Amino acid sequence: MSKTLEDLQREMEIAASDLDFEKARQIRDRISLLRGGAEATDAEAADTSGLARQQPGAMGLGTSRQRPVLPPDWKPPKKPDLMTSGQKRK
After folding, report:
1. pLDDT for 35-72, tens place per residue?
2. Residue 12 contacts residue 31 (beta carbons within 8 Å)
3. How does DSSP classify residue 83?
């Protein structure tokens, strides 16, 4: 017989208070599968040990963009002289 979400929530809290965090993680993943629409038998049989949770702050625009790596001897180019920029040569 499948357990209700309230029973699983209670079971997860008991496992966490007993410091059995691995069991609490498995129950938490099972709850999230059930809330996502999975059948109770599928959620119970699912192996969620290989799932990786997204890290906080890793969401949003441009967060997966890599930063350029400059060569160690690179120097920024000289800035143009503002007194002569935009002037045509005669």
Report:
1. 888 787 777 777 777 666 666 655 555 556 667 788 99
2. yes
3. T
Q: Is 27 exposed, middle or buried (0-12, 13-18, 19+ CB in 10 A)?
A: buried
Q: Considering the chain, what is the average pLDDT of its residues?
A: 78
pTM higher than 0.70: no
**pLDDT tens-digit map of 10-36:** 999 999 999 988 889 888 888 888 888
Residue 66 in any domain: the answer is no
Q: What is the number of domains present in the chain?
A: 1
DSSP letter assigned to residue 43: H
Tell me the residue range of the domain where 13 lies: 5-43
Q: 23: Cβ–Cβ under 8 A, 6 or more apart, which residues?
A: 15
Query: φ and ψ at 12, to 5 degrees?
Result: -65, -40
